[in-house]
What we know:
Helices cover 92% and strands 0% of the residues. The protein has helices spanning 2-22, 24-36, 39-60. The chain is flat.
Amino acid sequence: MWEELGKAICLMLIIEGMLPFLYPLRWRKMVATLATISDKHLRIMGLLSMCFGLILLLTLT
Length: 61
């Protein structure tokens, strides 16, 4: 189980690093926009993202 978790974290870091590497200006603008969004909306986006990831994970396994 720990090996799979490690691989998942490595894959997440690769995917997360792609946007700032490929589109640094767009990424910087997106981060600036996210800084202006309220905490409530950020929490909702985070919850939806987690639920979507969980559904995909359960569907693919």
